[in-house]
Amino acid sequence: MESHQTILLHNITPFEFKEMIIADLKIEIEKILLKSNKPEYYTVSEVSKILNVSNLTVYNYIKKGTLPAIKIGRKFQIRRLSLEDALKEVKSLKYRR
Fold first, then answer.
1. I need a labelling partner for 93 at 20 to 30 A (CA). Which of 15, 25, 42, 82 fits?
2. Is residue 31 included in any domain, yes or no?
3. 43 and 75 in contact (C-beta within 8 Å)?
4. Which pTM was predicted?
């Protein structure tokens, strides 16, 4: 059975109530946008800085298939989600031993 809650508002107009809700929503949307402000794709040098390894090591990960990448011209692009998935898999393998 559903329970209903009643909220009583005193000395506030519907317009003021609407403005309060809009202000709170704007704050929450800004928080979400700041969290998702990460780039969708990384370059090899960006990934090497994130992982604290050399560019050659990142190229080796790509060649082995450990790190999926897209080749655009002569450059590789690594999706952020692919990088996060690869890191999760490495962590899970680390604890399996």
1. 42
2. no
3. yes
4. 0.56
Residue 34 has pLDDT above 80, yes or no: no
Query: Cα-atom radius of gyration of the chain, to the nearest Å?
Result: 23
Q: What is the CATH number of the domain that holds 85?
A: 1.10.1660
Q: Tokens 């519907």 — which residue?
A: 14
Q: Looking at the domain assignment, is residue 25 inside a domain?
A: no
Report the SS3 class of residue 10.
Answer: coil
Residues 53-65: tens digit of each pLDDT? 999 999 999 999 9
**H-type alpha helices, 1-97:** 14-35, 44-51, 55-64, 80-96
- Are 44 and 58 a contacting pair, CB within 8 Å? yes
